[in-house]
Amino acid sequence: MQITLESKAFGATETDALVTYVFENGDVAQGRAAELDKLAGGLIAQLSKSGELTGKTLETTLLHAPHGLKATRLLLIGAGKRDQFNSATLRKIAGVAVRYLKSRSVHKFVFVVREGNATEESAQAIAEGVVIGDFETDKYKTDKKNDKFIESVSIAGYANGEKSAGEKGIAKGRTIGEAQNFTRDLVNEPSNKLTPRVLAEKAQAMAKDAGLAVEVLDEKKIADMKMGALLSVAQGSVEPPRMIVITYTPANAKTGAPVIGLVGKAVTFDTGGISIKPADGMEKMKYDMAGGATMIGIMRALAALKPSVKVICVVPATENMPGGRAQKPGDIQTAMSGKTIEVLNTDAEGRLILADAVHYAKQLGATHLVDAATLTGAIVVALANVNVGVFGSDQPWTDKLLASAKAAGEKMWQLPMDDEYREFIKGSFADIQNIGSGKGGGSITGAWFIREFAGDTPWIHLDIAGTAWNDDAKPWLAKGPTGVALRTLVHLVMSQ
After folding, report:
1. Angle between helices 486-494 and 163-188 (to 10 degrees)
2. Block means of pLDDT (10 residues each) for the chain, length 496 residues?
3. 244 and 106 assigned to the same domain
4. What phi and psi, each to the nearest 5 degrees, are found at residue 6?
5. pTM attached to this predicted model
6. Antiparallel, parallel or unpaired: β 459-463 and 388-392
7. H/E element holding 401?
8. Any idea what the CATH number is for the domain that residue 56 is in?
9. How many domains is the chain partitioned into structurally?
10. DSSP strand pairing (2-5 vs 152-156)
11. Residues designated catalytic
């Protein structure tokens, strides 16, 4: 898909569709909406007066052969209340435009930004929105609808003095959007197509193309380094584990600058092991590697955006299977750090592999840590599929993450990490146990388990179990993997 700036006047632009957004409460009498209404012979004002066009968020109104415009169609998308409008809304509007028009076999359209919105931030949001909205999960379908595609999107409304900012925003937005789609494509792969070894191969190929350093530890090296927590999860599968390490080193790194460690859980399929999951919905457990895929996608984006801080990405990859060699409830494992773990539930496996990965990231020099994982069903009970659960050991570092989430338009909510919750994972026969002994607080005790291996290093845990997968399509986003947290963490790294 091409994304460019359009220099022609709205009325003179020949395209399959012209797209813009309208606000609530009589907005069509103002600014560019009024200009378009005049060109369309007052039709927009008529629709607004009749109540058919309300401007409510993401409402769509399509006009065919609008008088006075050379565009074949005019699509108006609701933007809600003007005082609540932001780049997150604009990103969704752009995604709605792509998905709505693509389903109607439109191949080219021009997106008109409203007055005051011709900024770098807006161009970035639009570019991200159209790229992310264009993603489909039909890779393995043989009856593809080959006439449903978007060939090009042009963004109009930028004056000559604003075009440089617009082009910069488009470039950044495309980079981030494509990285998010790269992540989503990994998450969408079935487990028979994406084993730990295949994930490692894909990560190596991406790193090579992007100019990043990459190392993959095989099962022998993992054993030599005494990563007992990762090996314990992997031992029930015929597929060997992998530890993927991707490193971005800036040319202009400053002495004393932070080294950010990004750690992502990559269980390429999770049966629950001996503590086996119910059959209903188990097929979705291919997405249990979404945290790892997100971190790999972030590295793809950072290679192009070139932040001034070093970033180390560590992704432990394995399956969790109930084979004859699988670990059993009651087993005691020794993590790479030397800490012993009593495994009370083999379905609490993500925190085990993250234990070794977080410790290893510290060994590699990370001074600030963020991990992302589809860790607990408890976070879905607490926050549903709306917010990512955020847990932190260092409030200033966590505040930076939350500020980045707000800037990137991703909903995240911080949960408590009081010391009382630490007592829930105190082991009876080992240093710690992998599930809490109390009732409730499962997402917090899961986070506390990982924190044990972060130690004094500033650390954040993102529980994305409720937000990494859409069971139903959204007007701006296909059903399936979301790539959540990628935009937030790219912003966090770039802001350092």
Report:
1. 130
2. 92 93 86 90 91 95 92 96 96 98 96 96 98 96 86 96 97 98 98 98 98 98 98 98 98 88 98 97 97 98 97 98 97 98 98 98 98 98 98 98 98 98 96 93 98 98 98 97 98 96
3. no
4. -100, 130
5. 0.97
6. antiparallel
7. helix 395-408
8. 3.40.220.10
9. 2
10. parallel
11. 277, 351
